[in-house]
TrEMBL record, chains A, B:
The keyword Phosphoprotein does not apply. This is TetR family transcriptional regulator. Residues 11-71 form the HTH tetR-type domain. Gene3D superfamilies: Tetracycline Repressor, domain 2. Keywords: DNA-binding. Residues 34-53 bind DNA. The keyword Magnesium does not apply.
């Protein structure tokens, strides 16, 4: 009977460390985010921290992994309850772009930028980057109700994610939200035309694929 | 008669320091780019370096400023010699996107990311960011032969620059050039439709603006 609560406590400790890592990275930057600072902020002993994450790299990659997964899970739950079409496209693009702002993006940016000048860290991040890109694309396709087998649609969904990343970067130093809303509105209209054209092509030739 | 060569030498020293700063930032990262490292790499004494740039921040912001200006100057010289239309749009978007990869982008990314967790550095960078954004937009409009007074065109040119920034970020850890070429091709086609529509609107109602 003591097993379950102990596991729960351990899970809660782990979670506090991961969240503290993201906050430290976003607020203090890469260099200042040491295991000691993260542990203190989470109110977890150094010993318990090292039990969960033997190295700084373990802690940081686990934090990115965990936060990406929570974000994707939340996105799936919040899929707009409207049929595919311009309103849905705009709602999805807007939510997707907002995911590339705030603490998680800033934390990831700290790690990615450090990796640009650190080959060992880069090797470690590549599988994460590959997985994040793949899952984010699949999620965007599903939420847009898009036909990803259409090559134009495939590239334009990719471009939407690249645009979201660029808008995230533009928001790092200043609050860019007003301009971002306008960009989202105009791009969503363009993207919706692409999705609509693909739907018409498929309707005209349903056996094409 | 000794004045001119001395000025030339001083200018050449300054230039070597600025180029060395960009290379150090891109290769070694923010923390490792100290005045000492930059000076040694440029083969310039500490005294001469401090004469040109009293602080590390002076050196780094001057380096970003200088490299941005050289890049813009080069871009102006290389404006494609084709009339506005789909070929020109693709050539301009492609070149624009390539400007957001490589050493200068990586160097700027190091500084921007450090500023995200450093309010004093952020204050210092804001006027640079504002100027870079404004000049890059104006340059893109001219090279595309676009009518920036058209609100859809204005936003889509902005989105193109945001996309370029996002593609630059995607290229930091891995060589993303093959995928990027495809995105550029599809995005340019989309942008060209927007530019073409704006041209038709203006032709149909030349007094509208």
């Amino acid at each position: 009977m003591t097993r379950e609560p102990k596991q729960d406590r351990s899970r809660a400790t782990r979670l506090r460390l991961l969240e503290s890592t993201i906050d430290c990275l976003a607020e203090l930057g890469w260099a200042a985010t040491t295991v000691g600072v993260v542990a203190e902020r989470a109110g977890v002993s150094r010993g318990a921290t090292q039990h969960h994450f033997p190295t700084r790299e373990d802690l940081i990659t686990a934090a990115l992994d965990f936060m990406f997964d929570s974000r994707m899970e939340r996105a799936r739950k919040e899929t707009p309850d409207v049929p595919p079409g311009s309103a849905r496209t705009e709602a999805v693009v807007s939510r997707l772009v907002e995911q590339y702002t705030g603490n998680l993006f800033n934390a990831a940016l700290q790690v990615w930028t450090a990796a640009a000048a650190d080959p060992a860290l880069r090797e470690r991040l590549l599988p994460l980057e590959e997985r994040f890109g793949r899952v984010a694309h699949k999620e965007a396709v599903e939420q847009l109700g898009a036909d990803d087998s259409d090559p134009v649609v495939h590239r334009m969904v990719q471009a939407t994610l690249d645009l979201a990343r660029g808008l995230g970067l533009a928001d790092v130093l200043t609050d860019d939200s007003a301009r971002r809303r306008e960009i989202v509105r105009h791009w969503a209209a363009q993207l919706d035309t692409v999705l609509e054209d693909a739907r018409s092509r498929r309707a005209a030739d349903p056996l094409a694929r």
